[in-house]
Structures are given as structure tokens and as C-alpha cells.
Design brief:
It is built from 17 helices and 23 strands. The protein is α+β, with helices and mostly antiparallel strands. It folds into three domains: 211 residues, Nucleotidyltransferase, domain 5; 26 residues, no CATH class; 224 residues, ATPase, nucleotide binding domain (Nucleotidyltransferase, domain 5). Strand 6 and strand 7 form a beta hairpin. The protein starts with a strand and ends with a helix. Its main location: cytoplasm.
Amino acid sequence: MWEPGPAAACPRPRPRPRPRPRAPGPAGYVLGLDVGTTVIRGHVYDRRTHIRGSSYHKVEILYPHSGWVEIDPEVLWTQFIAVIKEAVQAAGIQMNQIVGLGISTQRATFITWNRTTGNPFHNFISWQDLRASDLVKSWNNSFLMKAIHSFSKVLHFFTRSKRLLGASLFTFTTQHVSLRLSWVLQNLMEVQRAVETENCCFGTVDTWLLHKLTKGSEYATDFSSASATGLFDPYQMCWSGFLTCLLSIPLSASHRKKNQIPIYLFHCGGEKNSMFGECCFHRGDVKLTMGTGTFMDINTGNHPQQTVGGFYPLIGWKIGQEVVCLAEGNAADTGTAIKWAQELNLFTDAAETDKMAKSLCSSAGVYFVPSFSGLQVPLNDPCACASFMGLKASTNKCHLVRAILEAIAFRNKQLYEMMQKEIHIPVTKIRADGGVCNNSFVMQMTSDLINEKIDRPAQVDMSCLGAAFLAGLAVGFWSDKEELKNLRKSEMVFEPQKKWKEYEHNMQNWMKAVQRSMNWY
């Protein structure tokens, strides 16, 4: 967990408690919540991880200006509480039978608020938001960044430190909180004044919800969410003094005293929760989440794995003295592209897309570039546009849908190749989750492209389950990770059926479409 000082723009760390021994008595339940980009879900789990009650609400996403993506914090809070109450009610139990609450949240979506009143200065700024794209370009092309790169290269030459090599190639992206927060500090006068009077709090979604749940007595986040902000040093396990100083983001060194939380609560960043829910506990385990975006994570053991511009070192979870590190690459517009196609009436239900794609032997030369929020690893172009290319008079809905699904699989291939290039750890297993993994066409094509088996679980809602697992372990609801492994059930394992040669020409043409979509804005 993380704890801030009174004037902090960011919190400070405190260790998570070790799991408590299981208490005797009547069986209780654990509630797992996932505050995702598009949906808030809640599931009540029993000891066998059977879902006893559920609820969900669609997140109301706002687009006030071109490229801006926001969420109203008060609406999100109202929906969050409604999901808790409705899930418990659907389970037919009382609130006091919930022994632990685990919360998974979208990461890198943040807010600032008045420390005295608790009132937010602005809406949540989503991880998909592009308002800081000009600032990102300015910083990445600045003399200072070039000097940092050159200095790091010289030091790397003498030390051969891979961490310094990574620093020599480091660039800012719009997905990191860092420059979007810097944009807020530069453009919102109310926030500037609050910072000057030491009355400004900053936090990601988990921080805000915890602050609200405890009526302002708790202001904290966890290591996993902090490490995804772009302001955190996973090697020192603290906020990066260099980056916060570079971007003029204020930090406080003092702690606040904490009060007891009435129900045992555990929160963690969404992708880390799904990693835990998939039981990817060992070095080399890979988790592929395909939800609003695609996130590929590999367990790198107890130490962060330095990369050189592709995958990003993160803290997976810290329980007691155990620290598990990950490396992650992502593509922003996966479920987003499918939802967009649905809104264009290409299909009625997302479940139809699998059959539509399989009804054709190919997309007939139609290619789709999924870039509503720019292109991430390995292309890293926030100015790329989404596009269809190769359209003909004979193109129909099925061609368009197949092109969208193929693009998702191609992006998975790019992420996997980047992971193999940068993370020199043998892959032990690959497990998939997220709503898009229900699409067998995407799953099979991805398995073919990367030439690996991919395990799809019986429950694809792994962020909720992972949050529940973490909370349940902490209160002794479940005894240890071995018990959790026995609870995870596989629904299907996809094995490679086609050779890379059968896809090579198609992917080369798709890459041409990608190149033509880059640097559009």
C-alpha cells in the first residue's frame, strides 16, 4: 500500500500485511470488483470460486474535446457503490457476510482533488486520453532529453548497465500519467494554486475510491498502480525523484497516520489482478488480457527486468516481503475497435464476430489499423490514425469484421515478438483473459502467429477473480497460492494449427497499412 504526506501530489509506500490464518466459523464470501475502462463489474465468490451473485454498470465515458477521454468521478462513485450493493443482493446474502473486498482498477487514469474539501478539480483523465500528445512530442524532441540519452549512453559504455541502456532510449508516452499530470499542472490554475498552498492531492482510480470508501481517512495506492504511472522507480521501490523533479511534480516526505478500515480491503492495478487471477505466479508465466486494450505481461521474478524501449518494468504485487515483478507491453484499442464496429451496426452482438470472420477464407485484401488512441509498442506513435485500407465495391460487413479481428491478432504477434526480443526469460505458459478472448477466431489466429499454446480459462473475468484472490488470501479465506492454483479451471487450450508462412504475406500487407496510418495527425 502507499501513503502520502499532507501536501503530496503522490503517495508513499507502506508494506502489505501478510495473509492471516483462516479463522474458524461459518463460511463467508469475498467480493471482487473490477473498475474497468468501459464496465464496472462485481462478483461475490464462495470458497470454490463459484460466483454467487453479480452486477455490472457501463462506465460513462466523456469526450469533451477531440482526443480527450474523461470520466465523471461522482458518477463513477455512484456506479461503484451500486455494483457492490447489487452484487451482494443478487447473492442473497448480507453485507456482513463479506469478509474481504478486492478492487481492481484501470491504471494510469487519474484525478486531482482539494485535500481540505475532497472536491475534485476536474474529471478523471483516462489512460486513453491524448491531450498531452504535443507535450509528449515536445519533451521527446527536447535538448534536455537528447542530453539525458547521450549521457546515459556514455555511462552505459563504461558500465554495461542495461538499466542505463534503457535510460538512453527512454521516451515519454501519453499513456503514462506523468505528462498528462504535468499538463494539468500547467493548464489548470485551480490546481496550480492548490499545489502552491499544499492543498492538492493526486491519485489514480484506486486512490480516489479508497479515499471515498474511508470518508477521507485513507489516501493511498499500491505498488502495482504506482509503478504504471511513469513516475515510479521499480528498482528503488519509491517515486522517482529524478522524474518528478524533471516534470516539476511535487512530492512530500512525511506520512499521515491511518485509521483502521472496517472491512479488509485489497486493491491492485487491473492487469496485475488478472495476472494473479490466472495464477501466473512463476517466472516466465505470461498473461494475455484482451479487453478494452491488449496487455501482455510476463512474470520476471523478484527483480524488475530492464527493457530498452518496448516492454515496461512494473511491480506485479507486494505481499509482506514478497515482491513479484512484471514486464508489460500493450495495444490500446482492442475491445474499443469491436465496440466501435458494433456502434456502426456491423453486427448486433460481439459474439457474432467469430462466426462472421470464419464465414470467409480471407479479408479479401481489406486491412484495419486499430489506432483510435495512437499506436503503442513497438511503434510508439501517438499521432497514428485508425483506418480501413483496401476497400472495394465488393467489400461487405464480414470482410470489415474479419479485418478488425485479424488486426487484433497481428498486434498480439507484435507484442509477443517484442517480449521475446527484450525479455530473455523462457516462456513457461500463456494464459488469456478478458472479453475478447471469448472470440475463438482471435485466439486461434494468435496461437498460430506466435506458435504457442494459449490457455483460455473457464472464467474470463480474471481482474475480479484476481482481486478476490488477493483479498481472500489476506484474510485467510484461502490458505495459499497452491490452493488458488487448484481452483483455477481451464475452458480450452488453443494450439497452433497453421504455419507462419500462411500468414506472412497478409501481415506484411497489414504493416503497409499501419505505416500509412502513422504520423497522420
